[in-house]
């Protein structure tokens, strides 16, 4: 039973344009949502998060949107830069010890 | 600065060997985790620990065990390594609302 889905395994975007990464979930008990970025041969690093009481959170070029009725989470990167090329994972938690991760989307930003 | 340190970045082992992967965190976190990352499968939880000597199985515990003798240290043990355990292993510790990961240990089992 896959609770979290990242349906796009890969995405290519021109430098300067917007990158949109998406995540769908099924468990309505999730109350905290995170995005992680991972470069090859490194551990994931935290990017941005949002709690269930909000629908938007911004941090510089990164904005996370939460649509609870659609059970949909998205990450917008504007403007995209070549250094943003990485694998992005969404992650969800319901305040317990457990974090559920998506399968990841490989973003490639073309110079 | 937050620090999760994994003892080995790259290991090559033979089928049937015992493998120890060690992880140390310096943030005094109670919760620690072991994940494995495989292409197309994302990060899957193997085991986690919420206190010293306390552990719980994650989604894929088969073939693995763990040890948490001290708060800062969480070890993953493969009693008899198999080729399907070739993977990237990631240790993490958590504060409320965030996981902090180590650099990862790439294990190849021949």
Structure explained in plain terms:
The complex is a heterodimer of chains A (111) and B (110). Chain A is mainly beta and 111 residues long. Chain A has a single domain, classed as Immunoglobulin-like. Chain A is 0% helix and 55% strand. In chain A, strands 2, 4, 5, 9, 10 and 11 form a 6-stranded mixed beta sheet that branches. In chain A, strands 1-3-8-7-6 form a 5-stranded antiparallel beta sheet, with no helix packed on it. With 110 residues, chain B is mainly β. Chain B has a single domain, classed as Immunoglobulins (Immunoglobulin-like). Chain B is built from no helices and 11 strands. Chain B has strands at residues 4-6, 10-13, 19-25, 31-38, 42-51, 54-57, 65-70, 73-78, 87-95, 98-101, 105-109. In chain B, the strands form 2 sheets. In chain B, strands 2, 4, 5, 6, 9, 10 and 11 form a 7-stranded mixed beta sheet that branches. The radius of gyration of chain B is 13 Å and the shape is globular. The mean pLDDT of chain B is 94. The interface between A and B is medium-sized, with 24 and 29 residues.
